[in-house]
Amino acid sequence: MSKTQTTHTITPTDREALGFLARFHGADTATVTQALLAKPSRFDNDGIERSIHPTQGVVNRRMLRLEQAGAIQAWRSPAAGITHYGILEGGKDALKMFNQAPPYEPRSIANKTGTSLMHDRDIANVAAQFMHGEYVDPEVTNLIGDEVPLEAFITDTQMHSAVYKYRKDSNGASLYQHITNTLARATTEQVSTLDFWVMHPELLVLTAPADVSTHEARTHRPDMVLLTESGKRVAVEVERNIKPLTKYVDTMRLFTSTLRGYQIKGSTDRVAPVQRLVWLCADNGIKNAIKKAANAVDPSLISQGLVIIADLTRADGTPLVYEETVPAPRRRRTRPQKVTDPGAMKPKTPTKTLTLGALAGATGRATTPQP
To answer: What 3-state class would DSSP assign to 233?
Structure first.
């Protein structure tokens, strides 16, 4: 008897989800939902306002099917109560077949801690909102624009991999000098394209020459950098936990140095790899600390809109918190479940009462119920 082989079809929408996870590992169901767009429906013109996104239930079933196909990995955080996703080899192969794979090797979520995955989820959720111009803060949205294609995001993974490769090949030479030399060979036309920065993501790392004083760090990788419709390169930081003030001061000093720009080929103008810095914060304590650091370095950073400090929120304006729940796959019970309803310990009331005559008909003789 021949065995039946199960096949899985990867749809265009599946590839959109895989492409998002390839760049933003750790995303949860709500975040993937935010990144995807619902398919047009014959009910779209009935005058009722609907979300442009599919429902979480639809996306949850899609993710379960992709997991069964070996395209993604799912891990449910017992502390946060949400499910994180990461891409696997099957998903990477599907993207490569249709030339939709990112220009670097995506990371998996294997061996990542729950805290690290939650930070990844936060970054992914913000990116998903930026994709469709849905971030609720007007100052942030005015800067980012109405739409950011997935290819216009340069992630921390890209920057980290590029810096690691450079330092390995150059025996740890100065990153600042590398950026100076690379941009000195670039033309105005080259630096105005997205492809240039995608091919050189290490140039987007904040750094400074040796004469700029810092407490600790000499470089800083933003959580992500995106190229807006207007051509601006915007670094984004997602901050859920407060850090020492000196770390924020160091970042502001490195950003200020980056704003001074680098000389490029055939031009008297200098180019700043990162032109704006957006800081999205989980509470007012973090916002106040970052504002204090920015004003200590240069008060014009905030007053001129070079640094924007805003709340970390969902697309509906509510805080982006850990309280999201996603239906987990059904599992066979292997141990007693906790009883939360005292009535559950009591016998259920029969739905139908049998008379002695009915019992006699069933058994062939009258039966008296035992006390």
So the answer is: strand
Contacts (Cβ under 8 Å, ≥6 apart) of 179: 202, 203, 205, 207, 262, 273
For residues 272 and 258, is the Cβ–Cβ distance under 8 A? yes
Pairing verdict, β 72-76 and 83-87: antiparallel
Give dist(CA 66, CA 58) in Å, integer: 13
Dist. CA 245–CA 227, nearest whole Å: 29
Q: How far is CA 109 from CA 151, 179, 315, in A?
A: 21, 31, 25
Look at the pTM and tell me if it is higher than 0.85: no
Furthest-apart CA pair in the chain: how many Å? Answer: 108
**What whole-number distance in Å separates Cα of residue 357 and Cα of residue 364?**
10
What residues have CB less than 8 Å from 106, skipping those under 6 apart?
21, 22, 23, 25, 87, 92, 157
DSSP string of 28-64, one letter each residue: BHHHHHHHS-PPP-TTTTSS----SS--HHHHHHHHH
**For residues 252 and 345, what is the distance between their CA atoms, to the nearest angstrom?**
61
Residues in the chain, pLDDT under 50: 1, 324-371
Residue with tokens 């199960």: 6
How many Cβ atoms sit within 10 Å of the Cβ of residue 122?
23
* Cα(231)–Cα(297) distance, integer angstroms: 26
Residues in the chain: 371
Tell me the three state secondary structure of residue 19. Answer: helix
Taking the C-alpha atoms of residue 233 and residue 277, their distance in angstroms, rounded to an integer, is 9
Helices marked H in the chain — which ranges?
12-23, 29-35, 56-68, 89-97, 114-131, 138-144, 156-169, 175-184, 188-191, 194-199, 245-259, 284-297, 300-303, 356-363
User: What phi and psi, each to the nearest 5 degrees, are found at residue 229?
Assistant: -60, -30
Q: What are 349's two structure tokens?
A: 């009331």
Residue 11 pLDDT: 94
Residue 133, phi-psi category: left (phi > 0), alpha (psi -120 to 50), beta (remainder) = left
**Rg of the chain in Å (alpha carbons):** 27
pLDDT digits (tens, 9 = 90+) for 49-62: 678 999 999 999 99
Token pair 């025996």 is found at: 171
